[in-house]
Amino acid sequence: MKVAVLGSGYWGRNLVRNFAELGVLAMVCDPSEEARENAGKMAPRIDLASDPAQAWVSKVDGIVIATPASTHFELARQSLMAGKHVFCEKPLALDYDQGAELVKMARDRRLILMVGHVLEYHPAVAELMNVVESGRLGKIQYIYSNRLSFGKVRREENILWSFAPHDIAITLRIANSMPFEVVACGGNYVQPNVADVTITNLLFDNGVRAHIFVSWLHPFKEQRLVVIGTQRMASFDDQSKKLLLYDRRVEVKDGVPMPVDGRGEEIPFAADEPLRIECKAFLSAMESGKPPLTDGASGLRVLRVLQAAQRSLITHGEPVRLPIEATA
Q: What pTM was estimated for this model as a whole?
């Protein structure tokens, strides 16, 4: 299996490095001469091109898209039309209908369509999912996720589309459901019409609520996921690299809520690089023909929530109801 990477910039160069080290990188396409030169230094024997069309007519099996979000749909569409498997960085597209078109194209052509939700491949998140699915937390009550930092400020997409896809993807996985209502609010402080801070609330039919706070205008970096259940609580701090399980809950005795403050324990997880795991998952999916964890359908669910959140954001927090079929 051989792949071509479209885009070797801020994030794409990490994909270039990983696929090169896995021995499957055949080509890198980027309009920037500097980006191409840097890619060539990481993988001296690959082909370098400025036009992605060269990847479509090449003999590579898969195409990895790490370009600005506004280009994802057209590049993925052209790649699928060329008969290539596609690994597209998040978001899959900027419009749900376009995303649905890509999913249908891949299905009709029996091609792999994978979306780059790298957090889902983090070993700590995999362990957290094991805890959730084992029932150790009890019934999930609410989830909150913070993804905060100072910069890198984008101009082509707001913080919701840049940061929140990771948190939405994990939240949907933990809740094991689609929300029926999405509410989002935020603020544009650096550039007009480009939100720098957003808070998104998701409401689920199974009673779960989720709160996602993202910002690139924050004095310190924080990436923390907390899951509250009726029996225990769990948290993953990506800064300290710790996954903790707390034996804490609230019991009602004689009508009085009583906090039960039990011990906490650290849950170990592998130190493997999440992006390396994700890249291997794409290669495995291409070889087996089996959909990866973050397949096109998964990316489409995240896209539906993103689009609803964006609609709520621009209407100053008006709730957006998802169609009944979307929550099934």
A: 0.92
